Amino acid sequence: MHRRLLVVLVPLAVLLVTALGVPLSVTVAEREIQETYVDRLNDVGRFSSLAETALSTGRTEALQQELTRYHELYGIPVAVIDTSGTVLLGPAGAYQEAARDEPALPRIVTAALAGARPEPSGEWAPWDDSALVVAEPVGRDSEVVGAVVTISDLSKTRSRILTRWARLAGLGLLPLIALMAVAWPVSAWVLRPVRELDAASSRISQGDLTIRADAEAGPAELRRLAESFNTMMDAVENAVQRQRAFVSDASHQLRNPLTSLRLAVESLEPHLGADGGGRQVYGVAVDELKAMQRMLNALQASARMESIRTASPVDLDAVLATRVERWRALTETAGQTLTVDVPPGLRLLEPSGGLGSILDELISNALRLSDARVVEVTARIDPANAGDGSAAGGAVTIIVRDDGQGIDPSERTQALRRFWRSPRHQNVPGTGLGLAICADLVGAAGGELRLEDGLPRPDGSGHGFAAVVALPAVPRVPSSSEAPAPA
């Protein structure tokens, strides 16, 4: 989370440094270029005064030597030209070679010969390679007899500008580095309670209501938030515990009087006449008492299973190893056939209460409610969540399907609600809680229980019933004691 905070803070700091650094960099570049231009302007002004005296007296040897020496020292060709553009004094070869690459030279020379001091030429940006052309007229007004022209290579000036920019960039990085060095631990300290709240919320979503947040660390606002969170969880846990305790206690307390009532009703059987209507009423009363006992047993089982809220990884092979033989015995007794097609090595997150109990309930529904001949249990990796065909990061889907009566599509949503029973199964023993409890437990483990079409019926009249359990897959981590199998 603090990484996302830095992603927000660092770009803002970069924008601030850039907003301050760019104008400063432009000022530095302009200053360097301006200093170079003033130096060249002073040089051509001095040479112009010397050239005016030398041309008027005819003594040009000293000026010629000075212009040559200037070129040798600084590498800048400077020439004195007449009104026709012919070089009178200075290194003519170097000047003409440099002049060929400067398209602005004729304009500047023409302005200087007209007696004006022209604007300097060239792009002064460090990434441009044009030269600086500066010209000064020799003479004044109508007595201009020529001009002094310099063509200066700005590569050294641009190198100095880039060096200054590099230093400014380095100085600009210092506050960014300091910001990151300070913001990383500070943001971690500030957001640690938020991370703990997030972890606690994740644990709570998995059913662990005992988790609490640390209300002693972090800023005052987050400490108050953690305290409010803990208070809320105390109230939620107490309410859930009271609810479960009520269901369990009520079921337990009702069981004894209900058992006594059933014994009392059954003790009336010898006193009923063989042909009277009382025996029919007696049978109805006994059936209702048995249904109430099953209901209480289901409520107690629900309270026990929901009190265990921690999901844990489990090997599907280990779960099936303890269940398949019993399922086969039950199906053979009912005259049905059980087939199990589950690939080995699947590991998934087991809901609270146990995956075996959930599969027992699904098999029981297939035996009691569907009138099926074939019950099939299969498992696979859900390709929608594990495209590479591995269980890691995907979902393991377990399907229990049969070729019996099935459930109408319009009733499948209601079948996952508590106490709902299909009109076709009103006379079949059951409470209507099994599928609903299984769906809740699977959902609490991050999975899903849905109902679909099952196997085709033998008479071709449709499809049977299928319960699909999708649970998160857990990657298998080999232990250090596991050695690779020999080839």
TrEMBL record:
Entry superkingdom: Bacteria
First-level EC class: transferase
Keyword DNA damage on entry: no
CDD domains in the record: HAMP (cd06225), HATPase (cd00075), HisKA (cd00082)
Protein localization: Cell membrane
UniProt KW keywords: Kinase, Membrane, Phosphoprotein, Transferase, Transmembrane, Transmembrane helix, Two-component regulatory system
Domain HAMP: from-to ranges: 188-241
Gene Ontology cellular-component annotations: plasma membrane
GO MF annotations in UniProt: phosphorelay sensor kinase activity
Domain annotation Histidine kinase: ranges: 249-475
Catalytic function, reaction form: ATP + protein L-histidine = ADP + protein N-phospho-L-histidine
Annotated InterPro entries: HAMP_dom (IPR003660), HATPase_C_sf (IPR036890), HATPase_dom (IPR003594), His_kinase_dom (IPR005467), HisK_dim/P_dom (IPR003661), HisK_dim/P_sf (IPR036097), Sig_transdc_His_kin-like_C (IPR004358), TCS_sensor_his_kinase (IPR050428)
Ranges annotated as spanning the membrane: 165-191
One Pfam family hit: HisKA
SMART domains in the record: HAMP, HATPase_c, HisKA
EC number: 2.7.13.3
Protein name: histidine kinase
Organism: Nonomuraea longispora
